[in-house]
């Protein structure tokens, strides 16, 4: 039997009257007047269990112990039987002349422990008989009850021996009857009578008459024991902790739930002072004091210390058992509320945080959403301050009629799912005026649960009205900005289209002018040489203006294309100087150019670099008074080539230096001192140099101190040096074969003059002003080269090219070149896709178109 089970039965023995208790095994009594009869009966009782491998405990006088040893010698080994002096044992359990149950349990329980596990136990005891011999019959009956209660906790059989002499006469008949009632079996008196025959007869008759009463009582006690067992099982296995505490605070018993709550075994817990297990000593002292004063405690909070050091929060229900006005013991129930206390503490901390939160917060409980808490921010938000205890609908009827917050609360409570809205529109009453403002809140509704049961909602609202207004302002600004960007893009496209059309329209009339000048020079018309030079200068200036405008357009749209090659740097600089030579002469400037060695090579677009340097030289020439000095110098520094253009002109003010490369910036000018230009030259310089991974910088000491522009470009890599461009072919009159050239342009002047150029160089040139005439002429003329204007009437140059190739077939191989005022990369790509062999932008140089004819000569010579 487990220790827990023993303690359980001990509890029930205290709860029930001693007269109804009894062991499941026999508790018998032998009345005797002859020692030999006692020794024989008791020895047989003990021998019965020893013979079956059991054990025995003898609490007897010294004389009886000797007799038992003689009778039992040889029956069992010494470790199966324990002999104890009954008088000494009685002395250990008597306090102030009365037996003490606690001491009795300690003594006898300890003896039983020594025999634990040695088989079935039988006990012979004379402690009660010794008390009767001293005339302490009441104390003897009390001690019998101790034995009976112990028997409910421990398994043993008990044999008591009473000399009949301790009941001298009929005066002790009542005591004699109580002794018999305390035992489950009464053995009639044996031996020779030492009493008067009449008295012996009376006692013998009483013994015999008790047999029937004992039988009836035994049946009743069996029924009572069954109820006791049920009650004991009920108490021991109750789901709530139960324990019994003596008046002095000693723990007498505890059930399984109590022990499991604190983690102690029965031996570790029972017998200790109750205060040892209370964390707060003033609390247990108050509990004991109140119980001693006959108070009944209900839901008294306390904190108990577990074996592992953990703290358990309990509610104690307790009252006391009093006898003759004195507290005997207390009955205590311990209800574990640790989780509830932890939850309540957590909820209290949460509520404190919500009260102090800088955002609106409220707790609503139940399906009706009754306010349990609302912090000051929430109350200010809704304009109401008496919310606690009211339902949401009672407290805020105006809001219920104006927004959907109540619906959100209902849905969150019914579903158990949280609700979050980044911008929840709520109407808020201000200052009790009855006027409502629209406010936006970041709203969070979180379900609250206790032991998996939804009991309420936590509502958090953060006012984001200003953020919403700011975001919407940003959205409007962004929309306006996007609309503006679209407008700018449309304007930019319109500008690009305008520039393209402008370039085309300007180049068309320039083409015949340039061609006419070439013819006039070739024919040696000296009378108009001065006028020719003037026209040439202005035409070249106009061409550069158009080129710059078109290049700026390409750069701003990211469509600038570089045609890179490795060339001698000196040749590029010489080309740039040639481009501005007329302007230098006109402005009467001295240009001092220091060219690099012919071996210094550079990799990039030579045309663009020549354009950059010519723009810098042009800028210097314009902003330097007549007769100025301009220097062009080149040097090599740390893997870079440095090209500088220096003048002694007007200089640049300090605040204007950062702006000189801005598009259309021309500095402070007066009408009298206007230098001309569109303000795109330096902007184009910066873009073109950046496209070559270089830098350009402007410096000036101030007005009247001149200026210096410095360009830094990387030197070519070893791989780039392997691809050196061949020298330009020299065009000379009458070189190569005579070619049949077809020119188609609706600008008759341009067509006629270009035809004249080819005829001057010995070629057979025919001119058509519309596609139909060209298609009529081609089959008989069989042209080898054709220059087609793209912007023709009826059909464009691309369609005409396709028809010409179809008409002529393979009978006459034909090279066709575009001749147009549109010179953007997209225009060149379109020409290539249309099958053109080249793309010329008006006005064209004589050398360019003649080079086309010469390239055919070169190809034929190579094939030959």
From TrEMBL:
Its EC number is 2.7.13.3. Residues 740-857 form the Response regulatory domain. It is a multi-pass membrane protein. Residues 227-300 form the PAS domain. One of its GO terms (molecular function) is phosphorelay sensor kinase activity. The lineage of its organism: Bacteria, Pseudomonadati, Pseudomonadota, Betaproteobacteria, Burkholderiales. Residues 501-717 form the Histidine kinase domain. This is histidine kinase.
């Amino acid at each position: 039997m487990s220790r827990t089970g023993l303690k359980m039965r001990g509890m029930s023995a205290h709860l029930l009257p001693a007269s109804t208790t009894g062991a499941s095994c026999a508790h018998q009594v032998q009345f005797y007047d002859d020692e030999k009869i006692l020794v024989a009966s008791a020895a047989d009782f003990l021998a019965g269990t020893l013979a079956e491998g059991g054990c025995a405990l003898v609490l007897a006088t010294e004389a009886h112990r000797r007799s038992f040893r003689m009778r039992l010698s040889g029956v069992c080994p010494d470790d199966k039987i324990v002999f104890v002096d009954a008088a000494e044992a009685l002395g250990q359990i008597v306090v102030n002349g009365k037996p003490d149950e606690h001491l009795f349990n300690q003594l006898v329980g300890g003896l039983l422990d020594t025999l634990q596990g040695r088989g079935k136990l039988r006990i012979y005891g004379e402690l009660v008989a010794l008390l009767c011999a001293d005339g302490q019959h009441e104390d003897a009956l009390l001690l019998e009850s101790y034995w009976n209660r112990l028997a409910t906790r421990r398994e043993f059989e008990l044999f008591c021996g009473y000399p009949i002499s301790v009941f001298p006469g009929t005066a002790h008949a009542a005591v004699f009857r109580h002794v018999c009632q305390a035992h489950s079996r009464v053995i009639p008196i044996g031996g020779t009578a030492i009493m008067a025959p009449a008295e012996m007869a009376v006692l013998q008759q009483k013994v015999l008459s008790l047999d029937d009463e004992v039988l009836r009582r035994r049946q009743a006690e069996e029924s009572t024991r069954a109820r006791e067992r049920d009650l004991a099982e009920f108490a021991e296995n109750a789901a709530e902790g139960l324990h019994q505490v003596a008046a002095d605070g000693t723990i007498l018993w505890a059930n399984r739930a109590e022990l499991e709550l604190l983690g102690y075994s029965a031996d570790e817990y029972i017998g200790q002072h109750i205060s040892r297990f209370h964390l707060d000593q003033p609390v247990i002292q108050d509990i004991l004091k109140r119980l001693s004063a006959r108070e009944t405690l209900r839901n008294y909070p306390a904190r108990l210390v577990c074996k592992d050091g953990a703290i358990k929060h309990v509610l104690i229900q307790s009252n006391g058992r009093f006898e003759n006005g004195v507290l005997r013991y207390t009955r205590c129930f311990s209800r574990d509320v640790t989780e509830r206390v932890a939850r309540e503490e957590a909820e209290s901390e949460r509520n404190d945080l919500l009260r102090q939160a800088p955002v609106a917060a409220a707790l609503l409980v139940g399906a009706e959403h009754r306010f349990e808490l609302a912090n000051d921010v929430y109350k200010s938000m809704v304009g109401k301050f008496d919310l606690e205890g009211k339902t949401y609908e009672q407290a805020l009827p105006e809001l219920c009629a104006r927004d959907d917050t109540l619906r959100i609360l209902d849905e969150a409570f019914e579903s158990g799912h949280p609700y979050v809205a980044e911008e929840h529109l709520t109407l808020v009453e201000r200052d009790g005026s009855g006027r409502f403002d629209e406010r936006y809140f970041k709203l969070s509704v979180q379900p609250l649960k206790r032991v998996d049961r939804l009991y309420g909602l936590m509502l958090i609202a953060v006012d984001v009205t200003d953020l919403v207004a700011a975001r919407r302002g940003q959205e409007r600004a962004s929309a306006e900005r996007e609309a503006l960007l679209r407008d700018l893009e449309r304007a930019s496209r319109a500008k690009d289209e305008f520039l393209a059309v402008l370039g085309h329209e300007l180049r068309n009339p320039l083409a015949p002018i340039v061609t006419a000048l070439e013819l006039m020079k070739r024919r040696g018309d000296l009378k108009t040489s001065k006028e020719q030079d003037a026209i040439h200068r202005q035409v070249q200036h106009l061409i550069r203006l158009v080129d710059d405008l078109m290049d700026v357009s390409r750069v701003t749209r990211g469509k600038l294309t570089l045609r890179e090659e490795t060339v001698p740097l000196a040749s590029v600089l010489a080309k740039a100087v040639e481009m501005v030579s007329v302007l230098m002469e006109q402005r009467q400037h001295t240009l001092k150019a220091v060219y690099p060695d012919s071996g210094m090579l550079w990799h990039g677009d030579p045309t663009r670099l020549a354009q950059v340097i010519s723009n810098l030289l042009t800028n210097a020439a314009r902003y330097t008074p007549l007769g100025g000095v301009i220097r062009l110098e080149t040097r090599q520094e740390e893997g870079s080539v440095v090209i500088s253009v220096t003048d002694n002109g007007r200089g640049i003010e300090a605040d204007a230096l950062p702006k000189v490369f801005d598009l259309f910036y021309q500095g402070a000018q007066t009408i009298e001192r206007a230098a001309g230009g569109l303000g795109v030259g330096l902007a184009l310089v910066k873009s073109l140099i950046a496209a070559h991974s270089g830098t350009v910088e402007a410096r000036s000491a101030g007005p009247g101190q001149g200026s210096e522009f410095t360009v830094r470009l990387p030197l070519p890599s070893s791989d780039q040096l392997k691809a050196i461009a061949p020298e330009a072919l020299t065009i000379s009159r009458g070189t190569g074969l005579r070619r049949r050239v077809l020119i188609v342009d609706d600008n008759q002047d341009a067509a006629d003059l270009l035809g004249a150029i080819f005829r001057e160089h010995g070629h057979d040139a025919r001119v058509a002003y519309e596609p139909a005439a060209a298609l009529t002429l081609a089959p008989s003329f069989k042209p080898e080269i054709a220059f087609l204007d793209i912007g023709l009437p009826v059909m464009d140059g691309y369609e005409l090219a396709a028809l010409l190739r179809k008409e002529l077939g393979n009978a006459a191989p034909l090279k066709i070149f575009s001749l147009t005022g549109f010179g953007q990369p997209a225009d060149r790509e379109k020409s290539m896709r249309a099958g053109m062999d080249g793309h010329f932008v008006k006005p064209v140089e004589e050398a360019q178109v003649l080079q086309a004819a010469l390239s055919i000569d070169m190809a034929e010579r190579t094939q030959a």
